[in-house]
Amino acid sequence: MNDLLVKDLRKTFRLSRKQRRIDRTKERRKVAVDGLSFTARRGEIYGLLGPNGAGKTTTLRCIATLISPDEGDVRVDGKSVLTDSLEVRQYISFLTSELKLDDFFTPNYLFDYFSRLHGVDAATRKKRKKDLFKRFGIDRFAEVKVADLSSGMKQKTSLAISLVHDPDFIVFDEPTNGLDVLTARTVTDYLLEMREAGKAIILSTHILSVVEKMCDRVGIIIDGRLQAEGTLDEVRRTDADANLENVFFQLVEQSEVAAA
Amino acid sequence: MKNLWVIFKKEIYRVVTDKRLVLGVFILPGLSIFLIYTIIGTAIGGQMDEEQAHVPTLYVENLPGEVEAHLDAHMDYTLQEGTIEEEALREKIREEELDLAVIFPEDFAERIDSREGIPEATVFYNQGSNHSSNAYNNFNQAMGAYHENIIMDRLDDPSDYHPYELGTVNLVDERNVVAQGFAMLMPMLIIIFLFVGVMNIGPDAIAGEKERGTIATLLVTPTRRTEIALGKVLSIALLSFASALSSFIGILLSLPQLMQFDDTLPDISIYGIGDFAVLLLVLIITVFFIVALVSIISTYAKSVKEATTLIMPFYFIAMIIGIMNSFGTDVNQSLLAHLAPIYGPINLLAGILTFEYSLVNFFATVLSTLVYTSLFVVLLNRMFSDERIMFTR
Description:
- The complex is a heterodimer of chains A (260) and B (393).
- In chain A, 40% of the residues lie in helices and 25% in strands.
- Chain A is of the alpha/beta class and 260 residues long.
- Chain B has two domains: 8-35 and 175-391, no CATH class; 55-161, D-Maltodextrin-Binding Protein, domain 2, CATH 3.40.190.10.
- Helix content of chain B is 72%, strand content 4%.
- A four-stranded mixed beta sheet of chain B has the order 2-1-3-4.
- In chain B, 34% of the residues are buried.
């Protein structure tokens, strides 16, 4: 049984003249992720924690094969994002706010469309759609065009669509964004259920309470580097009060001091 | 390649179930062309009818009897009564109250008969007025006949006036006349309509998806970039073809009014099934070429607006080539011309319509266009895999 392995991941982006001016730098490339390594095991939720611009989204996009790493690799169930990207996309579910749904279609149509792209057979598709739509309350607006849905409804639809193929690896970036408390709870409950079902889940978030409530292990990423990693208890223990928030702020401060 | 058809069907469904797109892509192109050309045709027809119905008003001083007889034989007219001073006459012609004025000298006919000098009559007309110009032309014809009679009277033997007979035999092939007409108009219209059809669909299908962020959702599915590229190209090609067809139907329906053919269309039966099959094949490969070109530009662009702006120069180039072909006298038979993108298919279309194409040129155009299109699709496939292109905003 293979896990999701991120190994020595490095990703840089070329800075345009305009970006260099805004960032007040002469560097032509920005290092977004710098030698990142971690493992998300099956049957656990791995929390990726970090401030804005830390490299979380870049890491997730590399895992989802949307972008290629400059160095290093990501292996999903033994398959490399560099050489087996098609297989990797079969195994993973990726949810992030930058993946949008076409306004013209209904949740019902989109679920069927993405199921077909994932090669899900008709009977399974029907059953899975019924289950997911009921669980997230999508059945009430299944035939309403995405354009007419609230942001919460859109998020629920994106969530269900990312799961059309019942993937073994779930990569979610801020999945409870825009959801009301009740629906957010439904999503977190669902993820816990998926963990019990033996799936590997990477949860990227900046909400510490979500990390504390759900994650088995956590990696704190700052300036593209993994600054701390371990079980929640292991990470908490680095603070005198065993407080995750304190640990996080200390690491951010240390990073800022080092940068200065 | 299963996902290619999933994407193809979704793209088609997206357009045919959207009332606004159906209206904009399939109905409006044909309807607007039909309405515009019908209005133009009706306006021209109305003007011609009005011109024919108009009886010109002539003012003639000292009208000789023989001239009057010729005038009666050549035109309908009304004579203005009374006497008008020359200045007032000029004013009335300018103001279009009178269509034509002629002042003959009192002894016009006598001097002709006696051959004493050359009598001079003065004609006033207004070239800026259609009625006046027509009256002047008809008057000239009447005077021409009068002139001919005088010459014949002066000859000892009237048959001397016709020293020879000129028999002419026009060997025109009616088929070629119609074919030349088609070849002058159709390649230009075809290329314009196809381009407009592709521009109606292409930018939104690719640049629109990038702009809205929906292409990323597709890119995280286990779908090959080739399947996405081909799924888009095939669906855009089919929809564009239908859009161009709408424009053609519009122009065909408006032809009777536009060309004043009295409800009869130009006879397209000069072309056989083979000709239509060859035409269709060239149209299809041309559509694919244009779609692939527009798809590349749309993939490169960050938004629909940018894509449309970047496509315009290519559209103008194609339009200019089409117009140049319309004014050209003969089909360019060189092999090189048939290998050129856009120009090759336009030239071949003109060749097919005038029955002047060789199989070598036909295959040169078809195969070269297919090669260009394939290269574009390969490039498109690479662009879909390039994160800088797909995710730069």
